[in-house]
Each structure stands twice: as structure tokens, then as C-alpha cells.
Amino acid sequence: MGEAIRTTLDIYRNYEGTGCLLFLVSIAVVYLWMFEEKKEIRTILVYVPFGIIVLFFFPLFSYISMRYFLDDQVYYRLLWLIPMGLLACYGIVKVISRLNVRKKRIMVGTLLGLFLLGSGNLIYANDAVTVTKNLYHLPPEDIAVADVMHVDGRDVKAVVPSEMLQFIRQYDASIKLAYGREELIEGWRSNPFYDAMESNPVRTFLITDYAMQQGVEYIVLRSGTPLVGTKPINKYRFSFLTSAYNYDIYIFEDAPFFEEKKQEYRATFDEDVYGNYTYRD
pTM of this prediction? Predict the structure, then answer.
């Protein structure tokens, strides 16, 4: 139980950021509790947020939730149920509406608006935000690889490097993956195929064996990925099809569309390409 309390406090500290918005929301809840007259608004903007906060910090609830329903990676999402933006804005409007002097309304509104602006960070300064290069707002290399793997009128199954897991199916839902983005989260990772694909060097027998077990028809590797094993990858029935950007795409020779793709990419298809392969017992 003590561990659950410490974890809950750590989650809250990470969630609050600068704390400015949560401070403003807290003031708004207290203010609306005192002055809001409409019962339905008090229920949505006062009682429900207060109840969620109580549940969030209640040790028994957090212990049971993180042990049986949620884990400490997603428990913070309980706070998403609080309409913080709505609460802050509605509270500001209620405060301003109670002021009788126009100059005071303008001054208080400006100060609170500046407080809101100063409480956050510019999203475009985040390293995770980049300038889009296409209409899909997706990495162009993911689109190029997906276009190579696409087969009209049917689904295909592929395994791709970790950086592609969150984007491939946004562009082409007909491409099924051997595993999804859950493998990117340390506490959720459980698929040995992911570990085999992300190892350095990559063992040819291991990835092709997992691929055939799971019905994978495409293996996508970063160009230059070190490959080791008693045999190169094409000796395990996965032939080099083509490259797109900095990725090499291999196709399963027993796939129903193998000959079709072989003809489509005949200029680059080479069943004797070993890739960056080094012999190892």
C-alpha cells in the first residue's frame, strides 16, 4: 500500500508539469463550489472533478487499480476525466462576469489570459514536433516502405523496425504487423520477435523463424543492419525485394503475391543479395 501511495504521488508530480494550470483549475473548483448556482454545472465541474481527485489519491483505489486494472504507466489517465480546459475557462468567465466595472473586466481578463499563456510551453519547441513533409503528416520513409509492401485487394503481414510501429498502419491499414507500439513501452514489452529484430547484430535464423511462425510476409530492416548466422537471410526463404530510403525490404518466397512483386521490382529484386551478412556458427 505504501508503494502505491509513493507511485501515485510520483505520477501526480510528473503530470502537473509547471503546476500553473492545476493551480488555476483548483481555484476554479473552489470558486464554483461557492458561487455556482446551477446544479447541473456544479455536478459536472465541481462534484465530478472532486470525486476523481479523491479516487486518484485514495490508497486502496490506486493500489487495486494499478495491480489489477491499470499499471503505473497509464494510471495518470484517470486525471484526463477532469475537464481542465473547460474548468479553467468557465471559472475565468464567471470571475470576470461578476465584475461591474468594464476596466476591471479587461484588466482581470488580460492578466488571467497571460497567466494561462505563461503556464505552458510552446508546442513547436518540442523535439517531438517536426515540420510535416507530406499531406499525411507521416515520415516519408514509412510511406515509401508501405507503398512497396502494399498489395491491392488483400492484407499483408510485416515486421518493421521500432521507429515505424506507430506510423505504418496510419497510412495503410491493410498492412498487419507482427507486434504493435506496446513493444515500445518498457513495462509492456513481451514479444521475443521484437527483441530479435532490435538486437545488434540481428540473427538471420531467429528473425526468419519467428516470421514464418507468425505468417509474416515482409521483413523490413534498416539498411546496413549487421546480420549474422550460419546462413544468410535469403537461405531462409526471404529474398531481397528492394530498398526504400534507408530500409531494406525482404519478401517471403511462399507469399501468394511473391511473383507479382518480383516482377514489379525486377530491377532491384535479387535472390542472391545477402545484405550486411557475416558468417557465424
Answer: 0.72
